[in-house]
Specification:
4 helices, Diaminopimelate Epimerase, Chain A, domain 1, 17% helix, single chain, 2 domains, 272 residues
Length: 272
C-alpha cells in the first residue's frame, strides 16, 4: 500500500507530514515509524498526521511522533510547515492548529515565512513536569562528572531545560544529551538546550531533542531559549534564536510567538 505524504523542513528540522481523515484514518505502527525515520530510509525528526476539522475552515488537528516512534505534544517548526500546507491548499493567509494540549494560530507572512502563536509557557514543577518540587529556575545536574548549573526548566507545549553557557558547542550533546533527557528528574523526559548569549537580542543554541536526538533546529527549543533569556534578564523579550541554518524570531509577552522560514512542499510516497 502506498500513501501520499509531504516532506518539509524548518531550518533543517525535517518532517514527514501525512493528511488523514476521521472516517478513514491512517495508522502507522511505532516500529514502522522508527524504520521510516532512519536516515538510510526516508529520514525525519518527526512524523506529523494532519486531520482537517471538516466543519471550521482552516482548522486542523495534528498528532506528532518523534523518530523513535513516541508520541509528543508539540513541534513548532512542524506546525509552521503544516500551516504552509493549509494556506497553500486553501489559498488563505492563516490557519488554526490543534495539538493535544494547545491551540496554535498561524499567519502567513510571506510565501515561505510563517508566524505562529505557541501559547504561554508553564513554570509549575508539576506541569513541566519534574519528579520533585525544586526551584525550576536553578537546576544543577551532575553528568559524567561535569556539573551543569542553573538549568531553567519549563514547558512550552513539551518539557525543556535550558542551560546558558559560554560556548554552547563545547559540549558533546550526543553523549550528554540522552543522559539529561532521561534523568530521573524528568518523568516525561526532557528536551535539552545549551544556549550562548551573543548579545542582548541574539542567542546561539545547540539542541538535543527528546526522542529525536541531535537536531539542526527545534522550534519549541527556540521558544524555551527566548523565554529563559528574558526571564533571566539576559535579553529583551524579542530575540533571534540562531541554529546552524538560520534563525527563528521569538517574541514573548505572556504568550510566545515564533516567526521563521519553512521549505517548499515536496510530495512523496510511503510504502506501508
Amino acid at each position: 500500500m502506498d500513501i501520499k505524504a509531504y516532506k518539509m523542513d524548518g531550518l533543517g528540522n525535517d518532517f514527514v507530514i501525512i493528511e488523514t481523515k476521521k472516517r478513514n484514518p491512517i495508522s502507522i505502527s511505532k516500529e514502522k515509524i522508527i524504520e521510516l525515520g532512519k536516515r538510510d530510509n526516508i529520514g525525519f525528526d518527526q512524523m506529523i498526521f494532519v486531520e482537517e476539522d471538516g466543519v471550521i475552515p482552516n482548522h486542523v488537528s495534528i498528532s506528532i511522533f518523534n523518530s523513535d516512534g513516541d508520541k509528543v505534544e508539540a513541534c513548532g517548526n512542524g506546525s509552521r510547515c503544516v500551516a504552509k500546507i493549509i494556506c497553500d491548499k486553501k489559498k488563505v493567509e492563516y490557519a488554526v492548529i490543534h495539538t493535544s494540549n494547545r491551540v496554535l494560530k498561524a499567519q502567513k507572512i510571506s510565501n515561505n515565512n510563517f508566524r505562529i502563536s505557541m501559547g504561554e509557557p508553564t513554570f509549575d514543577w508539576k506541569k513541566i513536569p519534574l519528579s520533585k518540587e525544586i526551584d525550576h529556575k536553578k537546576i544543577n545536574l551532575k553528568i559524567n562528572d561535569i556539573e551543569f548549573k542553573e538549568g531553567f526548566a519549563l514547558n512550552v507545549g513539551n518539557p525543556h531545560i535550558v542551560f546558558f553557557v559560554e560556548n554552547c558547542f563545547k559540549y558533546d550533546l550526543k553523549k550528554i544529551g540522552p543522559l539529561i533527557e532521561n534523568h530521573e528528574l524528568f518523568p516525561e523526559k526532557v528536551n535539552v538546550t545549551f544556549a550562548q548569549l551573543k548579545d542582548f537580542k541574539n542567542i546561539l543554541v545547540n539542541v538535543w531533542e527528546r526522542g529525536a536526538g541531535l537536531t539542526k533546529a527545534c522550534g519549541t527549543a527556540a521558544c524555551a531559549a527566548g523565554v529563559v533569556g528574558f526571564e533571566k534578564s539576559f535579553t529583551k523579550n524579542d530575540t533571534n534564536i540562531h541554529f546552524k541554518e538560520g534563525f527563528l524570531s521569538i517574541f514573548y509577552d505572556v504568550a510566545i510567538s515564533m516567526t521563521g522560514p519553512v521549505s517548499d512542499i515536496k510530495e512523496i510516497k510511503i510504502k506501508l
